[in-house]
Amino acid sequence: MDLSVTLAGERPLHLKNPVITASGTFGYGVEFAPYGDLTSLGAIVVKGLSLKPRSGNPTPRIAETTSGMLNAVGLQNDGVENFVRHTLPRLPWQELPVIANIYATEPQDFAELGAILAAEEGIAALEVNISCPNVKQGGILFGQDPRLAAAVTKAVRKAAPNKHLMVKLSPNVTDIAAIARAVADAGADSLACINTLSGMAVDVRSRRPRLANVIGGLSGPAIKPVALRCVWQVCNAVSIPVVGLGGIASAEDALEFILVGASAVQVGTANFFRPDFAFDLVRELPKACEKLGVHSLEELRGSLRV
Amino acid sequence: MSQPASSLLTVLDLVPFGQSNGLDTQFFALRLERPSWTAWKPGQFMMVRPTSFGLDLPWGRPFGICHMTAQHLICFFQVVGRGTQRMAALKSGDKVQVWGPLGNGFAMEDKPTLLLAGGMGIVPFIGYVHEHHQPWNLTMLFGHRQPLNCYPVDSINERITVDSLRESAVGDLDNLIFSLRERMADVGEQNGLVLACGPLPFLKTVQQFALELKVRTQLSLENKMACGVGACLGCVCQSTENYPVAAKRNWPVQVCTHGPVFWADQISLD
Ligand SMILES: Cc1cc2nc3c(=O)[nH]c(=O)nc-3n(C[C@H](O)[C@H](O)[C@H](O)COP(=O)(O)OP(=O)(O)OC[C@H]3O[C@@H](n4cnc5c(N)ncnc54)[C@H](O)[C@@H]3O)c2cc1C
Ligand SMILES: Cc1cc2nc3c(=O)[nH]c(=O)nc-3n(C[C@H](O)[C@H](O)[C@H](O)COP(=O)(O)O)c2cc1C
Ligand code: FES
Q: What's the CATH number where B176 sits?
């Protein structure tokens, strides 16, 4: 079964299959090489990159919750220069689209990141994180305000005119469709939907929060219904391709996102269920389609009967 | 060192260990079908995730690899929370996802080596004692709270001398700390090696003595982990300026991939 997908538009992004690994849950990709053939994946999104190395938040930074987890890693990363120089050459980018997830606190820094990555042949697309709820300064503001979200999109668009530009939306908003439209109008090629939901967990015995940062981002199966709702609303609001994510833990989950209109999907927290999860998902997708009597993803895409 | 792999293994059996006082502590040996990997180093660990975790417990749990034969792989665990509770209900025939071997393992030298184990921190030393070419150079000090027969000490006892100290009354801990320091000083004088694994307060004490007495000491950490492969950045500990990789000095490093074993002067436990 042909699973290939194109995120169509001015700068199309071709994928062998719709399975993309989500930022922050798949390291830089190399960590998972022992567990499967990276080039069998649709694409990988690397851990969020910032201009300068960031040491992230204090520990504990992660907490397991029922059917999910909270994280307040605080975007620890080695910085974009280190990534480009040392890690990107170790990835099979000739055969696997590598998507760089970028994070900054000012549109100017976003633009600078865009410019650095625009010059890298090994980068297939940029994913702009306008929605990180973990970092105290800024971040969250971009994703919650249509004008700020559009400003960041424009800044990166201008700095990296040659790259496919995916903007990753936050679910922590009252009207996600409005943000989606603003970002699409500002020149995004596609949208990724959703990032983590703001949440917290407490320990009743010690009376302490279970994250040092108190508040963190919820991910995993627990958020799937919210994610599906967001993807559905966004797909109805814009005409650019939408990549759905949030709680995907099986091939059938992935098909649900495609059914509500997603062109492709990302898997995040499920990569922690076992490191070979994403590779298996690629193998399981055709079987799940067959079970439903579906012969192509196109047949399923956006075919929700309401 | 062999390349790690992930596989779905069948549970051969689950054997309860000893008898513990409290209702909430239980000790088990979990025997699994052998995975595809065979080479591993004592101190390395694996992530274990029974299919019974379903979707509600997303993370696997890290456990020391302690024994492997042509037929099986054994680990020992204590019930402390939701995951280990569910593991205590495993039956033969159940399926468990296992990925490993992970992490770096302990140093092994032909020198007097003192093994310091606190509670279930004894587990990685089972393999260590069996792999070591000079068992006569090894001694162990074992601090524990539950009766000795709750812990897998027999196979260690067969090969080396184990001094165990049970912490049941006030003052026991002071005794343990006192002997700890004395024994570490002894080994230090012989330019030997100290290896420690146990709860954080125990490791902090060992670290403090290691720095004070200038004894070469390795600590094995038991941080919470989600992925075990270096991806989630949840298990990090802070390195010091002595960390060997320049770019990672005074920086949060993943315990799952850069550890779990660290030289005492290269990390901060605060
Ligand atoms: C490298 C490594 C090797 C290890 N090797 C071994 C080994 O060989 N044998 C072994 O027994 N252990 C070992 N451990 C420790 C083992 O991984 C943990 O005991 C296990 O992961 C606990 O899982 P759990 O779900 O039962 O507990 P968790 O639910 O994760 O709870 C752990 C602790 O948190 C507390 N807790 C539980 N629920 C909550 C809550 N809702 N809020 C706040 N606190 C809570 C518990 O009381 C407990 O003290 C190792 C750890 C590491 C990192
Ligand atoms: C530990 C962790 C780290 C993450 N880091 C990032 C990040 O750096 N940038 C980003 O855009 N999203 C990050 N995310 C969010 C995920 O990419 C994803 O949007 C979210 O987890 C929802 O998908 P899931 O339920 O499949 O995990 C992170 C998630 C987790 C669990
Ligand atoms: S457990 Fe995920 S980075 Fe160590």
A: 3.40.50
